[in-house]
Amino acid sequence: MLLKIKNFLFHNHSSKQTLFKNTFWLGQIEFFSKIIQFFITILVVRSFGPTNFGKFNLAFSYAAIIMVLSDFGLNTIVTREVAKHPDLASKYLNNTLAMKIIVSLFLCIISYLIRPILGGDPFIQKLFILCIVYNLLQNIYSLFVSIFSGLEKMEYIFISKIIYYLGLLFSAILITTNHSTPDKLLWLYIIASTITLIFTTILIFINKIKISLEFDFIFWKKIFSETLPLLGMAVLTAIYLNNDTILIGRFFGPEKVGFYQSAYKILFAFQSVNVVNYALFPRFSALIHQKNYESLNKLIKFTLTLSFVVLIPLTIGITIFAKPIINIIYGSVYSTASLAMIFLIWSGVASYFRAYATNLLIAANQQKVFFYIFLIGTITNIVINITITPNFNYYLPALSLLISETLITILSTIAFIRIRKIML
Prior knowledge:
Structural class: mainly alpha
Distance between the termini: 42 Å
Number of strands: 0
Largest sheet: none
Number of helices: 15
Order of helices and strands: HHHHHHHHHHHHHHH
Oligomer: single chain
Strand content: under 5%
């Protein structure tokens, strides 16, 4: 019996079994990581208070704009190509690792030079530099994860992620119980990321994948040409997901950022439903590469139906009990964030279906199409935010996110329907 379970959960056989296995392991990752992260959020929000929590998140938002240049879609391309050609895993890993290390060193220098333009608060500038270091370590780690994802070995991702999130939890408990500051927390996050990166490297070796730095510039050119649309999309994504926080910080101050981000963290926990999209992407890539459109259509029909049945009732329930949920989790001082949470949760539903359609487009090598769609959505989001945020209240960017996510989802779905007709 144990042998059968081990064989089912640690080896790839049929498409359905592989999808179930991947979803199981990614589900475990999402379950444990979201619980841990949500517990960390509660500790940090209650310990730091709205102002320091706002500064903490402002630093991450500024860092996110810089970090778009650290990956420029490499991880997505690596996952897609390794899913198609598992024998080339080492080549993709070693060349992209060399590219990322060079880019990371460059970004460290740039970040240090531009930190004064972030504002006059030296503490936010310090947090910004620490966020850059932390995110760069995470970017290297995410490359290793993309290799396991492409090979559809999600069980190894589960092991490394658990180590990482336990490290973050230990860091948060240590900092909050000693009533320390956000910069100390980031230092511990950096240590936890380094330990996770070392352990994941060991897992790569266990899978007999050689790690070295390769400088095959012809190969680099090939990869870079494919990532250009994703680079543009990464820039847009960083602006799209962080312009609200930056605008709130500029017009209303760090305290309102703290309120807004407390609601956003609940959306982050809700987005654990995206585990389905993470599991589906390599399967979509493989089926489209094999031109197995009958299996692809069955998979799309099944997963979309299940998604609607689960997500809509859940979101309605959260909407009805938004204020009590906020009060129970963070305390009554954060109760004004409940309206923002309602808009954000519904934008999370739209984001789920947007990610679903995005995966299909990228798996079909149509990232250029999605780039233009996302550009439309980002412009819409920015225009609404700039128009309404300064003149109204801090929670309205959440409504802007809901509108733009819905627009992108509709356009992406229409685009894939047209592309599918061509494929068939």
